[in-house]
Amino acid sequence: MKFKLLHIIITTILIIINTSIFAQNYYRDSILALIESPSIDSSTKAIIYNSIMHEETNPDSVKKYSELAIQYCGNNMVIKATATSNLAYVAFTEGKWEKALQLYQHSLSMARTTKDSLLLGTIILNTGNTLEALNEIPEAMEYIKQSIGIFRAIGNIAWEIWAYRQLCHICTQAKMFIIAEKYCADILRISRTSADPVDKLTGFIAYAQMSTFKAESQHADSLLRLLDRALVACDSIDEVIRVNKCTSFDCMTALNESYLERCKAHILYALHDDRYYKSNTDSAQKYLDLADEWYNSTGDSVQLAEVNLCRAWLTFAKKDYKKALKYATNYQETNYTSKYLKEHLYNLLSHSHYQLGHYKEAYQWQITLNKFLDITTEETKLAQVTERLLSNLLDEFDSAEQILNRKNAELSASVSDKQNKLLFAIVALGLSIFAIIVVCISVIRKRRILKLLKLKNQILMQKQEEIFQQQGIITKQKEKVELYNSTILQSIHYAQHIQRMALPDFDDVKALFPDSFLSYMPKDIVSGDFYYATRCGDFRILVIADCTGHGVPGGFLSMFGISAIKEILSRQPDDVLPGVVLDNMRDFIKDAFSGDSEIDEFGNEVYSTADGMDMSVCAINLETREVRYAGAYHSAYVWSNGTITRLKGDRMPIGRHIKETGNFSTIKQTLCSGDMLYMMTDGIQGQMGGLSGTKFMTKRLLQFFAENALEPVEKQKETFETIMRDWMYNTIQVDDITLAGIRIL
Question: Out of 70-74, 200-204, 380-384, which region has the weakest mean confidence (pLDDT)?
Answer without folding.
Answer: 380-384
